[in-house]
């Protein structure tokens, strides 16, 4: 068992292990397809397994050298074990967007995903073959001889994979065409591809090359007796539109904002199914389609508002602003401003409940340039919202109206009712935070025309069709992941200032909207003048003068 072996033998053994065991979520998904419930289907799955093994052997043959094969194999085994765990447990797939999400996840978010099930997967799928690798000595060959063998195996593996692909072309193409998510489940080739794709994208579109926009941006024109606008833009996290009572949900998840006159918009599509995909897109002037097709990066809405002379502040209770706030003032909710302290129980170390965003807002507002404040203020609050899988942590003990709730990150172990309860508690708590924000804005009416706009970055799957969390490729994602809530609050004072009527806005509650409207709606609410802003994409524009 532990006799000295050629590195290519190790590569072949690891490839077979990866195909047979680390791809169990793929085999489970294929076995559940009615069209494969036959002897022919079983033969197709066997052929596909051999193709996957051959492709991974081709990859490993490139590193089949005495000093390289063990670390390379170990890396692939651990990646495959982790990938199998998350694909199998949460029914997610691993594509470039999901990989970007992983790379941008902070320690707190990552910690919520680590538990006994993950460690068990790593031990079984990664630890067992790793132990065999460690115990197996490698036989050294002359470099030329090893290189010749590696090339031969590479060619043979590619020939085998290609041949099997041709023989099974009809079944393979039909299966992958009808069930597109399967193409992102070949493990760990999916992770290797995703990382490679991100590396290429980063090379083509460097992060530092953001092109300036809005050179013509100018502050809003005001009457002599007018007040500058104060817009609080709240970016929600993982909230889905169909769990907002303002959009018709049966449970009272928006009781507090409804009592304060907030208007909900029920048909809003997100830019993406993850924070990493949606957040930069929703602050862009390009819109989703042009944003995805862009050849380089541009500055964003925050830059335009600042260029127009307004005061801008990004306040974060999440894993950062994804580069959006680098050129404007920004702060963390975990660090209250001088002269203020968080209420007891709001923060645990560096992790805070979303009410921490409201701590010291007077001081934060006063710290901004007085000259800029006189032109207008854009205050962005980035919530933790309903970030999963630890939904129960997103609301405090005193604000959990729906019981019993799911208390674990192993979502499959919870009943559907308990899982929804935990999620809905987080939505109700978000509503409480928004109500507190509205109350603070009300107190600013003497010096500003206050407004609040809330929109979530993406939605969430809660076990429907066996799917959990978010991050599926956009074309494959269910509405639960792509449809998000949007709320607008305007006091009569601000309605008059922008020339919009509440009755008209309420009539637009069910108009199809998307994140594409955010850039232009914010510009319109603030009154910023620039050729970048398109009134056709300003959701409030049709109600001005109505």
Can you tell me about this structure?
- It is a single chain.
- The protein has 546 residues and is α/β, with parallel strands linked by helices.
- Helix content is 45%, strand content 10%.
- It has helices at 7-22, 24-31, 39-61, 69-90, 96-103, 107-113, 116-135, 143-167, 169-178, 189-204, 255-259, 275-282, 288-293, 301-307, 361-367, 370-373, 416-442, 479-482, 492-498, 502-507, 518-526, and strands at residues 229-236, 263-269, 311-316, 330-332, 347-348, 351-352, 377-382, 449-456, 461-462, 468-469, 483-489, 513-514.
- It has an eight-stranded mixed β-sheet, sandwiched between helices.
- A hairpin with a 2-residue loop joins strand 5 and strand 6.
- Helix 1 (7-22) packs parallel to helix 4 and helix 4 (69-90) runs antiparallel to helix 7.
- The radius of gyration is 27 Å and the shape is elongated.
């Amino acid at each position: 068992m532990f006799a000295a072996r050629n590195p290519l033998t190790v590569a072949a053994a690891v490839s077979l292990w990866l195909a047979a065991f680390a791809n169990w979520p793929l085999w489970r998904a294929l076995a559940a397809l009615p069209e494969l419930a036959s002897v022919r289907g079983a033969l197709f799955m066997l052929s596909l397994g051999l193709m996957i093994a051959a492709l991974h052997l081709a990859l490993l043959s490139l590193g089949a050298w005495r000093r390289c094969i063990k670390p390379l194999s170990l890396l692939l085994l651990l990646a495959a074990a982790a990938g199998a765990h998350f694909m199998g447990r949460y029914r997610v797939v691993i594509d470039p967007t999901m990989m970007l999400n992983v790379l941008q996840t902070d320690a707190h978010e990552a910690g919520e995903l680590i538990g006994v099930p993950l460690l068990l997967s790593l031990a079984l799928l990664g630890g067992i073959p790793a132990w065999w690798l460690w115990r197996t000595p490698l036989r050294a060959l002359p470099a030329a001889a090893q290189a010749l063998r590696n090339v031969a195996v590479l060619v043979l593996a590619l020939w085998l994979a290609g041949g099997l692909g041709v023989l099974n072309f009809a079944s393979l193409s039909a299966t992958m065409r009808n069930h597109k998510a399967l193409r992102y489940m070949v493990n760990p080739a999916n992770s290797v591809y995703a990382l490679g794709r991100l590396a290429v994208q980063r090379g083509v579109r460097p992060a530092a090359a953001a092109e300036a926009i809005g050179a013509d941006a100018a502050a809003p024109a005001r009457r002599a007796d007018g007040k500058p606008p104060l817009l609080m833009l709240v970016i929600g996290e993982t909230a889905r539109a169909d769990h907002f009572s303002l959009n018709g949900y049966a449970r009272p998840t928006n009781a507090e904002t409804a009592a304060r006159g907030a208007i909900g918009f029920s048909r809003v599509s997100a830019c993406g199914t993850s924070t990493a995909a949606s957040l930069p897109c929703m602050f862009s002037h390009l819109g989703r389609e042009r944003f995805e097709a862009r050849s380089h990066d541009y500055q964003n809405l925050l830059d335009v508002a600042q260029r127009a002379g307004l005061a801008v502040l990004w306040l974060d209770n999440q894993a950062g602003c994804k580069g959006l706030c680098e050129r404007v003032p920004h702060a963390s909710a975990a660090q209250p401003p001088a002269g203020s302290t968080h209420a007891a129980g709001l923060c645990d170390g560096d992790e805070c409940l979303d009410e921490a965003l409201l701590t010291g807002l007077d001081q934060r507002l006063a710290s901004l340039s007085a000259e800029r404040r006189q032109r207008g203020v854009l205050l962005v609050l980035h919530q933790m919202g309903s970030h999963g899988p630890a939904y129960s942590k997103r609301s405090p003990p005193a604000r959990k109206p729906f019981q019993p709730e799911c208390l674990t990150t192993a979502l499959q172990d919870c009943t559907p009712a308990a899982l929804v309860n935990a999620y809905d508690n987080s939505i109700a708590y978000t509503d409480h935070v928004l109500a507190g924000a509205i109350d603070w804005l009300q107190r600013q009416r003497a010096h500003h025309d206050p407004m609040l706009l809330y929109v979530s970055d993406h939605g969430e799957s809660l076990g429907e069709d066996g799917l959990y969390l978010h991050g599926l490729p956009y074309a494959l994602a269910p509405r639960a992941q792509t449809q998000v809530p949007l709320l607008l609050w305007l006091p009569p004072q601000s309605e008059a200032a922008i020339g919009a009527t509440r009755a008209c806005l309420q009539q637009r509650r069910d108009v199809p909207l998307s994140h594409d409207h955010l850039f232009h709606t914010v510009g319109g609410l603030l009154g910023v003048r620039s050729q970048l802003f398109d009134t056709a994409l300003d959701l409030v524009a049709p109600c001005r003068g109505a």
